[in-house]
Amino acid sequence: MRRTVFNEDHEAFRETIRDFVAAEVVPQFPEWEEAGHPPRDFYNKLGELGVFGITVPEEYGGAGETSFKYAAVISEECAKQGVNFGATTVHVNLVLPYLLAYGSEEQKKRWLPDFISGDMMTAIAMTEPGTGSDLAGMTTTARLDGDHYVLNGAKTFITGGVLADMVLVVARTSPATAENRRAGLSILCVDTKSDGYEVGRKLQKIGLRTSDTAELSFTDVRVPVENLLGEEGRGFDYLTHNLAEERLAIAVQSYASAAAAVGFAVQYVKDRQVFGKPVSSFQNTKFVLAECETEVEAARSFVDRAMDAHDLGELTPADAAKVKLFATEVQARVVDKCLQLHGGYGYILEYPIARLYTDARVTRIYGGTSEVLKTIIAKQIGV
C-alpha cells in the first residue's frame, strides 16, 4: 500500500541520508563495531549534514522543523543498509527535547550551537545499579552548596556515556515525601570534564555494538547552579513528558529493522541454492516471507499513524506504549524467522541479518519494558 506519511521534503532528505550512509557508514561499520563506537569526528560529519539541528529553532542555528518524521527517515535508511549512527538517537531524540522544552534562553544559546555541530555530544543518565526502572528509588544526590550543586552517586546503562561531553544527570536534590516517592528529583547538565566525574566500564553488549554504553560515577562533582535544567524538584515530571517520543522512536527503529530483515531474506533465498533449486522456490520459504511481510505492513501502518499523531501533538503515553509494544514484538518474530531462512549463515556476523537479530533483543527492554507498557495500556482501558 502507498505510504502517505512522508512529504517531498522528507523524501529529498531520504536521498541525502541514503547516499551519506552508503559512503560514510557502510564501509567503516565493521571497524566501528570493533571499537565499540564511531570515531569522534563522525559526529561532526553528521553536524555538517544538518542531522543534529533539524528540529532546533532557527534562532539557535537549526532548521526549525517540527516533524519527527525526519528522524524516522534516518532510522529507515540505516536499517535498509544494516547499520546505525552509534549513539546519535539518544543525542537527538532523547536529550534535545529536554533542552528545547526546559532549557532557559541562556542555556539554549550556550549549548545548542555546539550540540548542532557535533562539537558537544550528549547523553542522559537516569538508570542506577540496583534500581532499574524504579526512578523514584534512585540514590544519586545533588546537594546545594553556594552557587554549585555537589553531585554524588552512580549510573549504569548510559548510552553514549563514553564519548559524551555533557550528560543530563537525574539526581535527588531533596528527600521524597510520604505522599510522593517521585518528588525531589532534578536534572543537572554535567560537563564530563568536571573533577570527580568518571566513566567506568564500557559495557559489552550482545547487540548495538557501535552504541557506547557505560557506567558513570560522581564523587563530589561540582555543578554550577546555572546548569540546572528547568526547576528544581520537577525532574520526574520532565522525564515523563518525553516518554511518548522516546517510545515512538524505538517503535520506528523496530519496524524499520523488521522491514530490512525481510529485504535481506528475500535477496538471500533468491541467491541461495539448495538441492539444485533456489531456497525461494520452496513453499515454506514463500509462506514464511508472506507472514513476515504481512506483519511488517501492519507495523508500518501503526507506526505511520503514530507519527502523524505525534506531529499533531496528539500521541498519548498509552498510544506510544501500544505502538512500541506492537512494533518490537513484530520485530522479534520477523527477524527471527528471516534469520532462520538464512540457515547457518544467519548466525555469521558478516551477514546483516545476524546484526539485526542481536540488536533487536534490547528493544523490548529499553525505553520501558514490554511488561511496563502492558501495565500502562491496561490502566488506560480501566483494568
Automatic annotation (TrEMBL):
GO terms for molecular function: acyl-CoA dehydrogenase activity; flavin adenine dinucleotide binding. The lineage of its organism: Bacteria, Bacillati, Actinomycetota, Actinomycetes, Streptosporangiales. Its cofactor is FAD. Residues 233-381 form the Acyl-CoA dehydrogenase/oxidase C-terminal domain. Belongs to the acyl-CoA dehydrogenase family. Keywords: FAD, Flavoprotein, Oxidoreductase. Residues 123-221 form the Acyl-CoA oxidase/dehydrogenase middle domain. Residues 7-119 form the Acyl-CoA dehydrogenase/oxidase N-terminal domain. This is Acyl-CoA dehydrogenase family protein.
